[in-house]
Design brief:
- The protein is about 40% helix and about 15% strand.
- It is built from twelve helices and ten strands.
- The protein has an eight-stranded parallel beta sheet, covered by helices on one side. A two-stranded antiparallel ribbon has the order 1-2.
- Helix 6 links the parallel strand 8 (about 175-180) and strand 9 (about 205-210).
- It is globular.
- The mean pLDDT is about 95.
């Protein structure tokens, strides 16, 4: 295992992050405490130090398990958890990005995790209600109190993140160091706005569902195969099946599993990209860990890109029009060396 700097920070994190949404049986499809402990120990033994959870995961059981697992060695673990979400109920302030929920959530997470501080605290999803100023100042207060060391943001539009980070920088508040989004060979739409923004702001990207609910593992290539995930976006269709087949073809070429190929593709994307791997068993984890020493060659990357490419849409395809480019650069585009173009 090698390590990466977490965005604009100096924090060193492992090149894969262990997602722990499967820790606990509360949602009927996770892992027992004993099995979760085996996954955790195997990840740590492989050199992994970056662990991701959330207060909602398995109704808090994931955080409680991690609190027990980290006992006696909390310091070397880079622990990330999230706030925002709540199970449906009657309290209008039980969920959301506002300061009240943030403060209540961080205190509850600290107790479940049996720790005095959280290394990376994520806003889980944008609520389109809370003012950006309130969120960023509240984050800054937690950092100044020492309860949180770094902050990140997940599942939020690029324009909100850019505005929030710029506002915090101008006001001397804590800025984001990382972005968590859905990103994989199946879901490449973040390449339009979110990923360019992350590179411009020096945010590490931690993709969730890097195997698209198992589609990229190849297990749904059998006729009639369906994902256990109820989300329509993760159900196999003609396009997703074609991408999965391309992944399986490359996997055969390199003598690796499809999951390792899909993870290696993510790790070779521009910027700091740290896939979040989730595993219910040590065997699944071992297979995912095998991606760290796999480097795909250009023909293999091209095959995967050809199968999964998306249309950039406006304004991106507009910018690349020869007519528009000719006027924008006065016909000199090809003679200007642009070191900022990545």
């Amino acid at each position: 295992m090698r390590y990466k700097l977490l965005g604009k920070s100096g924090l060193r994190v492992s090149e894969l992050c262990l997602g722990t949404m499967t820790f606990g049986l509360d949602w009927k499809w996770g892992s027992s405490k004993a099995e979760s402990r085996k996954v955790y120990d195997a990840f740590r033994a492989a050199g992994g130090n970056f662990i991701d959870t959330a207060d909602l995961y398995t109704n808090g059981t994931s955080e409680r398990f991690l609190g027990d697992f980290m006992a006696g060695h909390r310091e070397p673990v880079v622990l990330a958890t999230k706030y925002t979400l709540s199970n449906p109920g009657n309290d209008p302030n039980a969920a959301g990005n506002h300061r009240k929920n943030m403060v209540q959530s961080v205190e509850a997470s600290l107790k479940r995790l049996r720790t005095d501080y959280i290394d990376l605290y994520w806003l889980h999803i944008w609520d389109f209600m809370t003012p950006i100023e309130e969120v960023m100042r509240a984050f800054d207060d937690l950092v100044r109190q020492g309860k949180v060391l770094y902050v990140g943001i997940s599942d939020t539009p690029a324009w909100v993140i850019a505005r929030a980070d710029t506002m915090a920088e101008l006001r001397g508040w804590t800025t984001f160091v990382a972005l968590q989004i859905q990103y994989s060979l199946i879901e490449r739409t973040p390449e339009r706005e979110l990923l360019p923004m992350a590179r411009a702001l020096d945010l590490a990207v931690t993709p969730w569902s890097p195997l698209a609910g198992g589609i990229l593992s190849g297990k749904y290539l059998k006729k009639g195969g369906k994902s256990r995930d109820a989300k329509r976006s993760l159900q196999p269709d003609a396009r997703k099946t074609g991408i999965s087949q391309a992944v399986s073809t490359v996997a055969k070429d390199v003598g690796r599993s499809p999951a390792q190929v899909a993870l290696a593709w993510l790790r070779q994307q521009p910027g700091v990209v740290i896939p979040i791997i989730g595993a219910r068993t040590p065997a699944q984890l071992k297979d995912n860990l095998g991606s760290v020493d796999l480097t795909l060659e250009e023909p293999q990357l091209k095959r995967l890109d050809d199968a999964s490419r998306i249309e950039p849409g406006f304004p991106h395809d507009f910018f690349t029009s020869e007519t528009v480019r000719g006027y924008t650069y006065g016909g000199m585009f090809d003679r200007i060396d642009n070191h900022r173009c990545r």
